[in-house]
Amino acid sequence: MFKKIVKVFSMMIVAQLAFMASLTSAYVFQNKTSTKESKLSPGVVHTQETYKTGSVMEAVHMLNIDLNDQFTKLEIGIPNPLNQLKTTSAFAKENSFTGHRVIGATNAAFYGAGPVNLIAENNTILRYGILGTNYESPTQKPVAFGISKSGEAIADYYTTNLTVKPAGGNTITINGVNRNRGSEETILHTSAVSSTGTNEWGVEVVIHQASKDTKSIAFGDKITGKVQSVTKIGQGGNAKVPKDGFVISTHNTAARTQLANIKVGTEVTLDINIDQKWQDAEYILGAGPLIVKDKKTHISMPEASSFVKSRHPRTAIGVDATGKKIFLVTVDGRMPGYSNGTSLQDLSKLLIAKGAVSAINLDGGGSTTMVTSQPGSYVPKMINRSSDGFERKVSAIFQAVSVAPPGEIKTFQIDATSKQLEVGGTATLSIKNPIDIYDNPYQQGVGNVTWKVEGNIGKMEGNKFIATKPGTGNIVATINNKTVKLQMRVAGSASDIYTDVYTDHWAYSSIMALNKDGYIQGYPDGTFKPGKSLTRGEAASLIARGLHLTTTKPNPFTDVDPKNFAYADIAAVAEVGIVVGKKENQFFPNDELTRAEMAVILNRAFTLIPKPNQTTEFSDVPASHWAAGSIKQLAASGLTSGYSDGTFGLNRNITRAEFAVFLDRIFKY
User: Fold this and answer.
1) Which pLDDT tens digit goes with each residue over 289-308?
2) ∠ CA(55), CA(59), CA(61), 5° rounding?
3) pTM score, two decimals?
4) Residue 6: which residues within 8 A CB-CB, separation 6 or more?
5) How remote is the C-alpha of 382 from its chain's centroid?
6) In terms of DSSP bridges, do strands 143-147 and 186-190 run parallel, antiparallel, or are they unpaired?
């Protein structure tokens, strides 16, 4: 028996592993379940997509950046000092100002005591020489993203050649700049730092009289200097860097043998080079691994690695064949039921499908972040969901920027202190969210507004509207020949009972009749809110009062607080089956009631008798719909004719005014 159990259990494990393997290997960006696209600026479009394959769900955000637009740039955002961390939102907000508006951004570089790998701007090296050394490291190979001197984006391998050569000696490869020295490494320390910060277990050569200030070094530099001093193993460490020179610090066996015997005064040549396609680039930022090359999946680290195969939140950047269109992508993860995350193989296929011929993985996991600014805003906000539950600080970002000059106004909105007034009432008007033709905030002449009134309902005094006659009209604002309208309603006078129910409101008589009979009440502030959607709790109260229902039984629903105004009424209508719970032991009292639900409730609550020759068919109510019978009974009783377009509005929320009219008609039935 025991052997049989073990065998069955083993088969279950094998089946489960096979299922998980198939799930991992299945491409999860085929079955798209939703998509939404919004234009953030003339050169930047944000796309939001969701996918579902089996039990795997994916939430994707993508910035499509078109460098063909003359005012659209893709830049790196880096801190000063370089090892400082900030959130992507903070970086983007700090870098967003008039003439330089950050449209969208994602996290970029990996971090390890500072940004990992290479960062250079206009050839100047800001960070150099930290490549991953273990099997799971994403930066095992030198790959980077950058903008070339001709303005095209590049996502590819790079080859650097930083060397130092003493006169008459051998060339020594430099592994890093201004960072800690590792085993078998040779590090260059420039005058940008005061000392090497090393221990005594290396050889350090101090060079002065440099032919160039080394505070900043750049690709293409050839710098000569003379040996000032040599410190051998066990003699010191932490050498001071001369202001007119640099220090070579090495633990490399061959290099330290050569440098330990170098003579003071020997000329040393420092060469700093990078392969031609990267020379004179606007910027270069190292990341990894490369995941797309020549429009094919190409992963520059072992594909059997768990870093590659596992599903995680990811950030990536891709480039199309022209080098002018860039895809910045985030895929959320570690949130079952929302987004599981993606493997690098699947991420590469997604980018290829979007048009990328090359792409690089950026820092992911809890760092995966995308922020965007809506048209007319300088405030970038996070739009994806962090697996950490908060926005993590990062070392660098990629930011899509609009550098457009001030343009003509394209659109704006009118804001009013009130859109519904009595005769004699006033409303102060203002302009909000003005946007120019480049989708940047419009800031020229917003105060120069021409106001007028359409519909003979009042007059303007400056930016103040004065209501003079009942009716509906428009407030018209014009800025530089661009016109926008706002509808304004003027009523003769408000009722004595509710300040927001006017005598000419279409539901006025029904609301007043139900109030008089004690069936409906308003809010403590004196309003009725006729246009507000009716909740399930409010519907229960209205039905219970209308039918004079009471109960001595406790409310059976766990989500209805005893202090809720409708607690007893919900218990009463539920007891007789008029309004029931949506789930076991749950009523959802604050959920808004649809017109379909309303029809069913009214049919349960009241005896509706069809009238002769009273038939109405609604185009949006199929015979198979769960509420079709109740809606048909409501129409046959002459209580509704639907909307003017021939629909009933099945899924529209019913307003407090509409429900009041239905109840009033039934009570007068």
Assistant:
1) 999 999 999 999 999 999 99
2) 160
3) 0.71
4) none
5) 4
6) unpaired
